[in-house]
Amino acid sequence: MIARILIAFAVLALITHTLVRPFVIPSGSMEPTLMTGDRVFAKVIGVDEANLERRDIVVFGHGATWADATIDEPNPVANALRYVGDVLGTGPSHRSHTVKRVIGLPGDTVSCCDTQGRLLVNGAPIDEPYVKNDLPMPAGSECDGGTPSTRCFAEITVPAGSYLVLGDNRANSSDSVAGCRGLSGTSCTPRFVRFDQVVGTLGWRWWPLPPGSAERS
């Protein structure tokens, strides 16, 4: 019996570290593409820097903040359970996981907005049909003078090996530019996701039924 349990754990660890890993969507920052409580699988296999593309939805791991590598757990029992989660690839672990959409690739410049309120990547507006709840941008407002809309942020250059990520629910998302919006002409400190933090890309929502692509918009 013990041998069978150990084999099952070993198979689970192999699957979650090399093929797919299950996650529960913890917040509404990606609505309506992903709803709070959705059960999804992240594809681990085949995810590398060369294949990661703009608009991919990624899961990335971090500690208490995006800059922290791991969570510091002072309780020895809880800490031991987190080590189990680290090995199995599911349950509590030493990393929190966040889900966002890749918008800026390494070397890209990203800013908001043009006169139509659209996001600009490398100076060109991009189509974002998945954004249903954006920050307000009243008619006549602008991003390059006066009092900017809360949707606005100045041009940001994405460093090598990193990504600028945003939530689809722009009006309620703590993402790469959350601390930069509405600061026309003012420098800020955006938060980037390093590739070594990326666990996988979202591929399949298996609950609630019916299952479907996690890329729905």
From TrEMBL:
Recorded topology in the membrane: Single-pass type II membrane protein
Enzyme class: hydrolase
InterPro entries membership: LexA/Signal_pep-like_sf (IPR036286), Pept_S26A_signal_pept_1 (IPR000223), Pept_S26A_signal_pept_1_CS (IPR019758), Pept_S26A_signal_pept_1_Ser-AS (IPR019756), Peptidase_S26 (IPR019533)
SUPFAM superfamilies: LexA/Signal peptidase (SSF51306)
Reaction equations catalysed: Cleavage of hydrophobic, N-terminal signal or leader sequences from secreted and periplasmic proteins
Cytoplasm found in the keyword field: no
Family annotation (CDD domains): S26_SPase_I (cd06530)
GO molecular function, one term: serine-type endopeptidase activity
Main subcellular location: membrane
GO biological process terms on file: signal peptide processing
Keyword set includes Protease: yes
Gene3D superfamilies cross-referenced by the UniProt entry: Umud Fragment, subunit A
Its EC number(s): 3.4.21.89
Residue ranges of every copy of the Peptidase S26 domain listed in the record: 2-207
Compartments (UniProt record): Cell membrane; Membrane
Active site: 29, 100
Domain of life the protein comes from: Bacteria
Alphabetized UniProt keyword annotations: Hydrolase, Protease
Annotated GO CC locations: plasma membrane
Coiled coil: none
Family recorded in the similarity comment: Belongs to the peptidase S26 family.
Protein's name in the database: Signal peptidase I
Organism expressing this protein natively: Janibacter limosus
The encoding gene: lepB
